[in-house]
Structure formats: C-alpha cells, structure tokens
Amino acid sequence: MFHHIKELQYNAKPSKPDPVYAKKLQEVLGGQYGEMTVMMQYLFQGWNCRGDQKYKDMILDIGTEEIAHVEMITTMIAQLLDGAPAKEQDEAAKDPVVEAALGGMNPQHIIVSGLGATPTDSTGYPWNSRYTISSGNLLADFRANLNAESQGRLQVVRLYESTTDPGVRDMLSFLIARDTMHQNQWIAAIEELEQNQKAIVPSTFPQENEKQQVSYSFMNFSKGEESAQGRWANGPSYDGQGNFEYVANPEAMGQVPFLKPSPAYIHGTPPTGNLPPNTNSSTFDKEAGT
C-alpha cells in the first residue's frame, strides 16, 4: 500500500524553460538506466522477495524512493517545457552541436504529452520492462542493481555537466548524492551476502558438476600479453575455491563442427560431395532424402 504526499522529496525548480534540455532529461527518466527502470526493478524484486524480510524491506524502501525520483524528474521536465513554443526551440537548436545531437525540441512534448514528460528516453523510444531484472536470486539481483546505479549516476553527472541552470543542477546534485548512497548500499548488501554464501551465482549449484579444469583459467584470446598482468590471471580466485591460471595460447577443445544436409522438404542447398574426412556421403544423402 502506498501513500502519496504533495511535497516532492526534493525541489525540482528550473530557473527558466529549456525544452531542448527537457529532451535530454528524458534519458534519466525513461531510458535503460533511468529512474523508471530502477523503480520497477526494485519494486518487483521486493514484491517477489522470498525469505529474509530484512532484504525485502530494504529493497522496497529504495524502490519507493525511486517513485519519488520519477515524480521529481517529470515535474522538472514539465517546467522546462513551460512557455516554450516550438519556434523558440528552433532558434535554440541552431547551435550545430545541439542540432546534431538533439535536433531541437522533442515534438512529442507538444503533440503527445501537452508540455509534459513522457515514459520514453531522450530519443523518444518507449520505456521497456525488459530493462528490469528480478531473478529471485538476491546476489545476482543486487549486482545488477549496483550496475544500474553506476550507469544511472554516470548519466546524471553528464547531464549536470551539460547545464548551467542552478535549479536543474540543484535537483541533479541531490539525485547524484542519492545514487552515491545507493551504490554504497548495494555494495554493502553484496558483501553481506557473499559472507554467507559463495561469491559465484548460483552458490547452490554443486561445483563438481562443472568442468573444473577450466573454472579458474584466464584464456588469452587476443594479441598481446597485457591481460596477464591483471589480478584475474594469477593468485587465489575471488571465491576462495581455486587459483587463477593464465593460459597464453589456449587450444581448441571441441570437435570440428559439421551439420548434415537438411531433408529434401526443407529445400536447402544440396550436398556437393565436399564432406569432412571420414564421412560417408551416401549416409548423408539417405538421411536427407535424396
């Protein structure tokens, strides 16, 4: 059950209208790493959380806060669109850099939303629930959450750097600070989970069922040896279950792939007789129905 109060979590007041910037701000509203994504991601993770109520409560705390961030950004976008007819934005977009990147004002802000925000990114692409992750495995989900907050904070910082409006910067500085907390929050939660289970997801899969000969082998599949200098190439593995091994020239371990010709009713390419060594062409012809 949610209750709405009229006050925003923090101020969202631009100093003046700027519909071109409103178009930019749509990215951190409805983009892949925008506030709508983390809002829905956290809420579904919380609603679907099984077991430890500490984690469920924490996830729903942050998910509910993200609803507030969505409201703040939509409010800011709407005010950036105040009193800004399209012809004025055509003038603003005469800057060749702005024109190349944005093409001026988003026409949907007039035609579709009536000078309001839309659930889309900065190019007008609709928000998509496939951006969200809720797997039921908390360690896997919390790592995804850390990535989402890292990418989101990066984008908000870039938006902060691309405006001089003190009101917009004030709101963004608040969101940046909250993203600082949220990254720290997920790091702390990940660390806590890793102390109580293996670091590799899923921790419940018996490791003897995997091909353990290559479980900790870092294979160099590119030119150069620079990658051998990394922590991932030598020493104890992060999960404490093995030691990293650097393989400079990994050998192929599989068979030469060969797919037999398709049956006649598929109407694929007929066999030409150019078959791998030690194969019987008549067998393939028979199986293909020729």
From TrEMBL:
Residues 261-290 are annotated as: Disordered. It comes from the Bacteria. Residues 268-283 have a biased composition (Low complexity). Belongs to the manganese catalase family. This is Mn-containing catalase. It comes from Virgibacillus litoralis.
